[in-house]
Amino acid sequence: MGSIEIEPSKSDVSRRDFLKLLAAAGVGLAFTPFIPWGKFMPNPSNIMPVKAEVILPDGTQANVKTFPKNHSEVITYPLSGDPVLDKEPFKKWQFVRLPDELGGGKEDVSAFRAYSMVCLHLWCLWKYWPQEGRKRGECPCHGSMYNMINGKAFAGPASLQAAPSNVLPILYLETDSDGNLWIKPAIWNVNQNGIVGYGRFLQT
Ligand code: FES
After folding, report:
1. Of the given ranges (20-34, 158-172, 189-203), which has the lowest mean pLDDT?
2. Which of 106, 137, 188, 204 has most Cβ atoms within 10 angstroms of its Cβ?
3. Half-sphere exposure of 116 (CA within 13 A, CB side)
4. Ligand 1 atom 1: the closest Cα is on which residue?
5. Phi and psi for 129 in degrees, rounded to 5?
6. Where do the domains of the chain lie, and which CATH numbers do they carry?
7. Taking Cα atoms as reference points, which of 78, 72, 150 lies closest to residue 110?
8. Do 120 and 197 meet the contact criterion of CB atoms below 8 Å apart?
9. pLDDT of 23-37, one tens digit each?
10. Closest atom of ligand 1 relative to the 122 alpha carbon
11. Are 122 and 141 a contacting pair, CB within 8 Å?
């Protein structure tokens, strides 16, 4: 029986080529802050990153009064309105309300986080695990684990990568007077929201 070959999409090829470029460039480049990485990465930079509602999978806007503690949902940012483009993994974020012990009980924006779902190791999609003894982000591919307070990898291969490739990109959030959650306009830069698939420097 013959096998069926599936031709990789152009974006798969370009991502693979980019990984090769990273490998060839070596760790030294990772420490070079003036390289405009955002131009090379498939960040959704062609869409103006504007302030946007945190829209949950059920179509409603997240609210501090109703979103459960120790719980996560997948959100999309920035939304293009095109259902195909909006399925792009580089637009997917884990929107997490922290557990009580990490501050999730507060009725304000500090109880929430939104991190890029693209694992900083080899771009599998990680997710939040709320079970007792976990309460962290875990990547199913090679076991990288992420601290939900700051998005920093603390176990697995992503934790061994040099900064900024050991901290997940983040969306900064705010609330309105009704408790509705909003995403502040993102800046795809390693010193601000970070670069999806590449990382972010932790700000002190
Ligand atoms: S892709 Fe996530 S640990 Fe390797």
Report:
1. 20-34
2. 137
3. 32
4. 122
5. -115, 115
6. 10-183 (2.102.10.10)
7. 150
8. yes
9. 434 444 444 444 454
10. 1
11. yes
